[in-house]
Amino acid sequence: MNASRSRTAGFGGTELAVVDYGGEGPGILLLHGMMGRTSTWGSTAEWLTEYGHVVGFDARGHGLSEAPAGPYDRAAHVGDAAAVIESFGLSPAVVIGHSMGALTAWQLAGTHPELVRGVVIGDMAAVVPDVQDRWAAWLAHWPVPFDSIADVREYFAGGHLGEFFIGDHSDRVHPSEGDYFVEVVYEDAEGYWPLARTENVLACRQHWNDRDHSAELEAVQCPALVVAGELSYFPVDGSRRMADRLPRGAFVEIPGAGHVLHFDAPAAWRAAVEPFVKRVLSS
Question: Is the pLDDT at 169 greater than 70, yes or no?
Fold first, then answer.
């Protein structure tokens, strides 16, 4: 896979770091989750290039994208995704999102149907309770700076995230979260730090914290696939109800997987998503 990196203007002119993973044909856009960056999609992008032109970008305030003072609301995130689709000629694209990126994906499909031909919603709840204080506590708990990449991996693989979060399986340890989080740190003379700043993360979360986005699902007229982890922090039954509200929705549960589906169970993730992508692009 020959990925190329560039920058493009997003909503309001915010500069976004983009990775073009290659491939030819229909557009496929990848939207990462909270605290992530588009490099977390590497293994997924590799097999997706068999079906189309795959592009991902770092969300505002994340990765190598610009971190402006604002805005970080939903309109800004949706506007960024729309701008990348238009800039790279991906329309209409299959949009695949995880967590925060999944929320952006279905909001984009509902408000800009001309840009989206199919959407994958990877482990994101439509109804999110008020856990902003718990997020702030979790971020403050990080023992930064970390001394090494090994320390980053060990900390996040150890279940510390579950100490602060909701769901029936908040006490479970998901070792792959260690692999996920080593993707989203940088090194300086003192050690390893998160690329995303706490204030920007909390600003992003503020706009879906304590909200119900269920009604928005009904505006998604294209084919949609909801994929949930059996052991996610988000209850699986809620994800199943989301699929029921989508006019053309389908649902897949991945056994044994937690929230970070494509790291926890990459083969099962591919087995769920690949047939959907093939079907949408061939219709």
Answer: no
- Give the whole-angstrom CA distance, residue 268 versus residue 103: 22
pTM of the model: 0.96
Mean pLDDT of 225-254: 96
Encoding tokens for residue 229?
A: 């982890």
Exposed e or buried b per residue across 213-231, where buried means at least 16 C-beta atoms within 10 angstroms of its C-beta: beebbeebebbbbbbbbeb
Same domain, 181 and 254: no
Mean pLDDT of 46-69: 98
The boundaries of the domain holding residue 23 are 4-128+212-282
pLDDT for the residue 164: 59
Query: Is the pLDDT assigned to residue 16 strictly greater than 50?
Result: yes
Rounded to an integer, the average pLDDT of 3-20 is: 98
3-state secondary structure of 258: coil
Decide if 55 is inside a domain. Answer: yes
Contact 272, 225 (CB under 8 A): yes
Euclidean distance between CA atoms 217 and 126, whole angstroms: 8
The pair of three-digit structure tokens given for residue 187, joined into one six-digit string: 């090194």
Q: Quote the CA–CA distance of 262 and 176 in Å, as a whole number.
A: 9
Token output for 177: 């979260």
Q: Which two tokens stand for residue 21?
A: 């993973």
- Establish whether the linkage from the previous residue to 145 is cis, with ω within 30° of 0: yes
Q: Answer yes or no: do 108 and 147 share one domain.
A: no
List 121's β-bridge partners, or say none. Answer: 97, 226
Tell me: do 271 and 146 sit in the same domain. Answer: no
| Domain termination residue (choose one: 202, 237, 264) | 202
Among 147, 180, 202, where does a domain finish? 202
pLDDT of residue 2: 82
